[in-house]
């Protein structure tokens, strides 16, 4: 089932650091958060050929945002359900766990 998902991020205290991204599925939204972290790592380590990280590193990156959350569309009630930072972290953990089983 496709669940339209909107990620809401406020990177700093400044309100003008707010942004949003929307995706057709929760999985695509979660992949984008992971991609944001990997891009951040590449910017911090431009000469590194390989960069390793674990879930604690990724969670720490997420915790650096002033605020992060997402809205997931629930067709049964025709409304968006809000989810917080901890929900996002658990979805990322489950997503990476599934990838590691492949």
From TrEMBL:
A Pfam family of this chain: ER
Protein's recorded name: Enhancer of rudimentary homolog
Role noted for this protein: May have a role in the cell cycle.
Family label: Belongs to the E(R) family.
Keywords: Cell cycle
Keyword Transcription regulation on entry: no
Keyword Transport listed: no
């Amino acid at each position: 089932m496709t669940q339209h998902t909107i990620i809401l991020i406020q990177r700093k205290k400044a309100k003008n650091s707010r942004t949003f991204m929307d995706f057709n599925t929760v999985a695509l939204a979660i992949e984008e958060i992971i991609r944001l972290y990997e891009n951040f790592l590449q910017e911090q380590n431009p000469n590194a050929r390989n960069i390793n990280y674990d879930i604690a590193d990724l969670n720490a990156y997420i915790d650096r945002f002033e605020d992060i959350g997402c809205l997931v569309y629930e067709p049964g009630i025709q409304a968006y359900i809000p989810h917080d930072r901890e929900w996002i972290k658990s979805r990322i953990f489950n997503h990476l766990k599934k990838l590691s089983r492949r």
